[in-house]
Write a structure and sequence with these properties.
binds 2'-deoxycytidine-5'-monophosphate; 5-stranded parallel β-sheet; 9 helices; Rossmann fold; 3-stranded antiparallel β-sheet; alpha/beta; 224 residues
């Protein structure tokens, strides 16, 4: 079916502010929002809970994708009736999501679910391969990034606010490891080409990023 809805794809490394910024852009423009990382994280949670590994239980993981009842609501992310919004943000879940993300069969089986979000309304979505693989037709593609140190500092501040005792060095190490895993994998690596607009927010506020993306979107619409 021809997709008539407009899509803004925001890809970038972990803790680059994609989620916060994508959500605000969606609110400003009246678009729906899809956090594709939350899908990988929800699957990761089930994989951890069932003590599965990609090496030994790939087909079981693939069948979890078809059976998991994942929903996004105003109150958060749910599997069946359980609100998993907090659990999916844990470091170990993010790391498992990144491991699952390296597998082509898992990625392929998540495609239709992700694409179904663009069948009802215009969409802002964030992830690693939203503009390159999932929604190549996106009208605007942004590659959002910041230095690893800045991203580690932001993550550290977030975790401290949540009352978690964390070490800056281990956060930075995790960020560098996840960048490496997400960028160097064979399937759908985190990457960008000339169709992407690069937005480095090391020294920009959230509001400045949102306003830049909305301006780019309006310019794109005017010229199309
Ligand atoms: O965006 P995030 O940090 O919530 O994503 C968690 C992990 O999920 C990320 O390290 C890699 C994987 N992921 C992916 O491979 N492709 C996406 N589109 C989104 C996330």
């Amino acid at each position: 079916m021809l997709n008539i809805y407009k899509i803004i794809a925001i890809d970038g490394p972990s803790s680059s502010g994609k989620g916060t910024i994508a959500k605000l852009v969606a609110q400003k423009l009246g678009f729906d929002y899809l956090d594709s990382g939350a899908i990988y994280r929800a699957l990761a949670l089930l994989v951890i809970k069932n003590e599965l590994t990609v090496e030994k239980n790939l087909m079981q993981i693939v069948s979890l994708i078809t059976t998991m009842k994942l929903s996004f609501t105003q109150d958060g992310v749910f599997i069946d009736n359980e609100n998993i919004s907090a659990k999916i943000r844990e470091e170990k879940t993010g790391m498992m999501a990144s491991i699952l993300g390296k597998n082509g069969l898992i990625r392929e089986n998540l495609l239709n679910f992700q694409r179904s979000f663009a069948l009802k309304n215009n969409l802002v979505t964030d992830g690693r391969d939203m503009g390159s693989v999932v929604f190549p037709q996106a009208i605007l593609k942004i590659f959002l990034t910041a230095s690893a140190e800045k991203r580690a500092q932001r993550r550290f501040n977030q975790l401290q606010l949540l009352g978690k005792s964390v070490k800056m060095e281990s956060i930075l190490r995790d960020i560098i490891l996840r960048d490496e895993q997400d960028s160097n994998r064979e399937v759908a690596p985190l990457t960008h080409d000339s169709r992407y607009k690069l937005l480095d927010n090391t020294s920009l506020t959230i509001e400045e990023c949102v306003s830049k993306i909305v301006t780019w979107y309006n310019d794109t619409i005017r010229c199309s």
